[in-house]
Specification:
Length: about 500
């Protein structure tokens, strides 16, 4: 395959993948406009996000199986076309119910794009260039969540929320044409007649669908205090357990879990799960801290996040070149250590941090993510045969997405719990016997008297102090959670020793 052909194929598969990843987060910032336009409540409107995530999670692990059933090129064209048509229908939705239905179809179309793109890239580039191939894929994976909220906010403010979906249409049409002309199926990815694993398919849909709803709605419903979340968790756990049992004995499983017998592959998936568990959680926490405690606008928060994304885009191609020249395990360990250090720096934030202090840890995290993603993906997938690559990338991308979902659910819960804990401890000092409290109360009262609110100065002074207490408790909870994330990343480091490097000079189909 010529040099130019490889890069044309890379552009062909990454173009639709990028817009699919952007659509995972683009709706978040437009939610208020959507619910206002469609006369929906806050809890109802969040189903536009949840429905997409659920359908996306269900499709990702069975992409390899569906590619064999329909033929990979044919299935890729169908997925892009379904995603594009659903985007048009989402923009044309006349009610919240219709938007949720169309988002489900959009998720079904988009779910296959990530694993198929990854498997095609690994096949198109020779083994010694797999690091660069994964750098191309990683740029799309990391760039999407960064640009999504910024793009969604700008389009919604300047046009309307419908255009966050309409903008996908021309890109989708171009992508379909490029796939038709430039993508060809190898012999082992042609359409294959096989018996459908109905039980496995049904259990996967029920299990992953229920699990994704639990993770998305759990904190809002106070977790197991809610009967809905409790029973949905039971259903998810039971269905996924039965799914694992069924798939190990199925003749043609929808997800071939026997791939996990490969120690390097299974270890890489565990590392990926906990890595994205931690990193995605930190990226979600940072703008919440900036906007809720520091008073930053969405634009200013984006300016803090932006340089970190740029650092990732620079670091990934560099890591892609280094991964074939040095031991990828060393690069992976370095990436994990840098990410842990960056989140530790975030745990040192306070209510008086300046702009430069906030940007620096995000830039360090961006560099760490670049040096982490490429060697991890290369080590995990380099020992997988090309014939099994579709199934392997499906499992890998599923655990990456689930890691992010678990991470966000975990840190939002921990943030709320630790905030309650610090409020309880700080309130203990608000007594007439505490000299600092008395000094602060007198000082607040004098300021309010000076402003002409003397009749209520004592009560108003107490209100000011309590408001500051809430801010301090919230800040301490952010510190705790960032410190916990840093520790989790460090705990993953020993697993790197279990991974092994595939042969970079192996002939096609033999690594």
């Amino acid at each position: 395959m010529s040099k130019w052909t490889k890069w044309i194929i890379a552009l062909t598969v990454m173009l639709p993948t990028l817009i699919e990843i952007v659509d995972t987060s683009v709706v978040n910032v437009s939610l208020d406009h959507i619910r206002g336009s469609l006369s929906a409540g806050l809890d109802e409107s969040t189903w536009t996000i949840t429905s997409y995530l659920v359908s996306n999670a269900i499709i990702i692990p069975i992409t390899g199986w569906l590619s064999k059933v329909f033929g990979r090129k044919r299935y890729l064209i169908f997925s892009i076309a379904l995603f594009t048509i659903s985007s048009f229908l989402c923009g044309s939705a006349w009610s919240l119910a219709s938007l949720i239905v169309f988002r489900i179809f959009q998720g079904i179309g988009g779910g296959a794009l990530q694993p198929i793109s990854q498997s095609i890239l690994l096949e198109s580039f020779p083994p010694k260039e797999h690091g660069m191939a994964m750098a191309v894929f990683g740029v799309g994976i990391m760039f999407g969540p960064i640009v999504g909220p910024l793009l969604g906010g700008w389009i919604t403010d300047n046009w309307s929320w419908q255009w966050i979906f309409y903008i996908n249409i021309p890109i989708g049409i171009i992508s379909v044409l490029m796939v038709i002309f430039f993508i060809k199926d190898p012999h082992y990815m042609k359409r294959t007649a096989m018996r459908i694993d109905y039980w496995g398919l049904m259990l996967l849909v029920i299990g992953l669908g229920s699990l994704q709803i639990v993770l998305d709605k759990g904190q809002r419903e106070n977790w197991f205090a809610s009967g809905f979340i409790f029973w949905l968790s039971i259903i998810a756990g039971t269905a996924l357990l039965l799914f694992v049992i069924v798939e190990f004995f199925a003749e043609h499983p929808v997800v071939d879990l026997r791939a996990l017998k490969n120690i390097s592959f299974s270890t890489g998936n565990v590392v990926m799960f906990f890595t994205f568990f931690s990193l995605f959680a930190s990226i979600v926490l940072l703008p919440v801290y900036l906007q809720s405690l520091m008073g930053y606008t969405s634009t200013l928060a984006g300016m803090v996040l932006g340089p970190g994304g740029l650092a990732t885009l620079i670091a990934m191609p560099l890591a892609g070149r280094l991964v074939t020249k040095v031991n990828p395990k060393g690069l992976l360990a370095l990436g994990l250590a840098v990410c842990s250090y960056a989140t530790f720096l975030m745990s040192q934030f306070d209510l008086y941090a300046d702009f430069n202090t906030l940007i620096w840890p995000r830039v360090v995290l961006g560099v760490g993510m670049g040096f982490l993603f490429i060697p991890l993906t290369t080590l995990t997938l380099s020992t997988v045969k090309k014939e099994a690559m579709g199934n392997a990338t499906g499992i890998y991308n599923l655990l990456r997405n689930l890691g992010g979902s678990f991470g966000v659910a975990f840190v939002t819960t921990m943030l709320a719990r630790r905030e309650q804990f610090h409020q309880f401890r700080l309130v203990e000092h608000l007594t007439p016997f505490d000299r600092n409290y008395q000094f602060a109360l007198d000082h607040s009262s004098r300021i309010l008297q000076y402003k002409g609110v003397e009749p209520l100065s004592q009560q108003a002074g107490q209100a000011l102090i309590y408001r500051e207490l809430l801010r301090q408790a919230s800040m301490l909870s952010f510190n705790d959670v960032f410190r916990l994330i840093s520790t989790i990343i460090l705990c993953v480091l020993p697993l790197v020793l279990l991974m092994r490097r595939g042969k970079t000079d192996a002939p096609a189909g033999m690594h």
